[in-house]
Design a protein that fits this description.
By secondary structure, the protein is mainly α. It contains 9 helices and no strands.
Length: 254
Amino acid sequence: MISPSRKEWSKGFVLWVWYPLATLCLIVGIAFAACCLEGAFDWRYRTLSSLGSASTNPRGYAYCCLGMMVSFSMGLPLCGYFRVRFEPITPIAARASSWALKIGFLGVVAVGFERLFSQGISLPVHKAHEYISIITFFGLLLGIFGFWFCLTRWLIHERQWPVWALSALSLFSVGPIVGTGLSQAYLYFVPNDLGWVGPDWAELGVPLYLSFAFWEWLTVVGIFIYLFLILFFLPAEIPASTTDPSPPSSRAAN
């Protein structure tokens, strides 16, 4: 754990200044990249990677890559910020989630760096971009789910939140992931000649729920929403250990 004597950012600064700035960097990068894209930008059938590709967006891919790199680099301090507040509550989950989220954030930075500088260059590792993307996805997924578990436990045991409310809120994060899996499974097993998702899918009338791009954008938005919710609800100060199974009232009496 971090020493209590170490000066830390206040929750207000992280929640209302640092995190919004990090989010804004990504939004600005994506917006500039979309403006430079040839033709109209239909996010429902355009993946994030198409904005950061030199082949599909030669005039604006750098904006997307830089936005990703700066935004998720600014997110790295959140890993330790979350960990020190959840470690007294669920030590193993907090440490594992911190490492997973850090890998996810660094993975996004690596993807942005790779897209910015290595496109058109033959990389020594075949399909390096795909491998980094997979590791990044699972890092973000496990890190956010892990910290959400820590937050859920704290809110139930220390704030007496109803389990059903937190369960319902948790289901919103599962939707895009399930939608992605089902849509891609359908396209894989059902014969079709659609190829990879693109703007032409809208003209062909392909249902929105089959578009990987649609679910990808929902997942990206979901990541930032859940990070904000964790920041919003987590304790402002590092809590005392709650490994004691007795209820809060009896611990206070002692």
